[in-house]
C-alpha cells in the first residue's frame, strides 16, 4: 500500500505540473480547464482515481485483518490469563469479557 501511495504522490505531482498554473496547493486543488484540456488530462485523472480506490481497498483489508487478529489475541489472552478483559475501540467496536 505504501508503494501505491508513493506512485499516487508522484503521478499527482506530475499532473499538477502539467496543469495550467503548474501547481496545486494543499490536499485538494482546483483549476479551470477548457473542454480540450479536460479531455487531455482525463486519463491522468482516471489513473489517480484508480490508485485512490486501490489505497482505500487496501485500508479496508488491513482494517479487517487487524480487527480479526485483535479478536484472536483478546480471546487467547483472556483464556490464558483467566482475566475477564473487556474494552471498546474508539470506533465503538466492543470486545466483551470472555468467560
Describe the 3D structure.
The radius of gyration is 22 Å and the shape is rod-shaped. 65% of the residues lie in helices and 4% in strands. It has helices spanning 2-18, 35-81, and strands at residues 87-88, 94-95. It contains two helices and two strands; from the N terminus they run H-H-E-E. The longest helix has 47 residues, at 35-81. The protein has a two-stranded antiparallel sheet with strand order 1-2. It has one domain (2-95). The chain has 99 residues and is mainly α.
**Elements, N to C (H/E):** HHEE
Q: Assign a percent range to the helix content.
A: 55-70%
The radius of gyration computed from the alpha-carbon positions, rounded to a whole number of angstroms, is 22 Å
> Please, how many domains?
1
Describe the sheet with the most strands. 2 strands, antiparallel
**How many alpha or pi helices?**
2
- Average pLDDT for all residues: 83
The beta-strand count equals 2
Counting copies of identical and different chains, the oligomeric state is single chain
Structural category is mainly alpha
Query: What percent strand?
Result: under 5%
Coarse morphology? rod-shaped
Poorly predicted sequence stretches spanning 5 or more consecutive residues? none
Placed side by side, the strands forming the largest sheet appear as 1-2
Q: Distance between the terminal alpha carbons, to the nearest Å?
A: 38 Å
